[in-house]
Amino acid sequence: MKGGWCQQKNNEGDNKSAASPTKVEGEGDLIEEQPIDPKNPDVLSGSKTWDTSSANVKSFTYTVTWSFKRCPAELEILDVEFAEHPYPDFETWKKIEDEETVDSNLVRIRAKIVNYSSETKFPKIEFKELKENIRLENGKTNISIAPGEIREVDYLWDTSGFAWVTGGFPMSRRQIKVELTEKQTREMTKEIVIMPRPVILAHGLWADYKSWDGYDKLFYKAHSSIWRTFAVGKDPSNGLMNTGEKGTWKPAKSIIENAEQLGRQIEFVQKNMNAWHVDVVAHSMGGLITRSYINDLMKTAPDGKPTIGHLVMLGTPNMGSPCADLMGFTFWSLGKPVKSLEQLRPKYLEGFNRAVRNRKGVKFSNLVGTSVPATCQSTVSGDGVVEIPSAIWEIGDIRYSKNIHTALTSEEDFWRLVWRKLSISRLGNHDPDPKQYHAQAASFNHPTENVVQFVNASFKTQAEEQEDFTAPENTKINLAKEISLQPRQTIELYIPAETGSSSAVTLMAQPAVSATLVDNKGAIVGKSAANSPEANADFRTISIDKPAAGGSLKLKLENTGAAETSVIVAAWTNTNQNQISFTLEADKANAGRFPITAKLFLNDSPVTNAALKARIKSDDGKAAEIILRDDGKSGDGAANDGVYGALTEKLANGEYSLEAVAETNGQVRLAATSLSVGATTPPAPTKTAIVKTVKK
Q1: What band does 126 get if pLDDT is binned at 50, 70 and 90?
Q2: Total count of domains within the chain
Q3: Are residues 228 and 185 in the same domain?
């Protein structure tokens, strides 16, 4: 049967058309019980196959497919279909199954248009998203379509940010509407789910995938169960990083070897979820491993954007850790060097940072711990493992936390940094990132201009590092020892200390171990209790300032656990004659205003008449300067006591960073802290977010 019976010229009172029914010779059949779609009763469509073969004769198979529409308009939208590139093939398109894709994927929206009229038409086609009631960028076009022609009109949609709306709220279930306008408007709407980019979780020193236990639930809370996380090593067949085991000499992989394992995990996720882009959250050494992957192994996606959209680091020691110097030397002096510690030494990271510089457009952020006033033998504050300047390095986007190093994966810090950096809506910046530096970088000899890019350059090997392994600068090691403790056992250890010098004991021990430092009179001068928050730290330091004459110290170690364990002990004396201590604190707010105090001391003596300036910066980048004074009138206590104070202006709800810089005796120190006004967690997701559970 020829088409066109709904055209006006074929339905006149006196049909003068030459068109007439046509009989096709051959086998026929009757199609009965044609199902009718109640949502679209004017369309009958289906397909039927006949096979004329018999047991003895091989013949033909006939398939008839039909689609009849009752008196259609001159122009109609037959269908709207979604397709995407199947990873890693960017040359072909594949229909999206279950109408689900991943944020940042390129989606082809294809509208099939038919012209039922006898004239060429010139309609306008427009693509819209209904949940936010927006016209998709460059989503308008005009076409010409001949009589009886079916045209496919494609729109390439960059879905970056469409899993979210402004403010970090989820909005994955999207409705795409295609409008066809020529005298009258026809439209068709189809739904698609945009899943957030999957997140790779890279653990740090002496850890494995179990260090992320429960972290996935924070992503569910922030969005839904379709915000997927993948902890490296949970499925070893998809990548297994080895950063050593705390308190042991078990072999570990190098940073670049671990970067290869990270790459395996990323590749698995991309194939498994058809995700062209991922994000990475990395704790501590995991950030260095990810930096190595980006520099040496990561390829730019065919759409011109980096495979990793955002690297969020939690306490990454980008310039190394003084604790690695101290305890790395301790292990080395015991004849049992630990590779993972050696690769965190500042001297090793100098070479690493000369070679590993290419960020390839990946956005970098780092969460910086500030609550510990000294970092092992260093007087620079940080998170107990990483000094503030080391975490900042050359990173422009940082946030501060009052948690210690091992607690930077807390829920509080998830809302403070991780969620904020990964829940970027379509209105955010999704372009590759030019390298941004921290404003204070120059103050700490961090190059900010004319930096030579050493791509794939070499730096000192582990063997070369071992050859010149010396004690940390300005530090005398008085004792280096390994102690084995049976369950419930207590051991007392003599600790030499030099009169008139700042001394300390740094140890590496399981949380079940309690350590108490006692002077020659039996008085407790320092303690690290078993199973306390501090006991979970990678390095525990108990300090004693200026022991009394003839001061011998005794370290009492008690294993409160039910398993045998070992403790590595380093007793040391700081020989630096110019020790600067600079800390910054913010008290509880009163009516939105925070009292802040900074303490500045040189060799335990207050530094007076210093010009201290602090900078307070809101999460949206707005900054204000604050002058701190040691005048006894600024909430600083007594005048000229080395304690400087100020009161902030009234702050609106939100997250703030507070930084202060002090320079004395030719040395520069940075101190910092965080301020929170109002709730730190977002409101509950709206019901429009998503309720569908993604297939595993």
Answers
A1: very high
A2: 5
A3: no
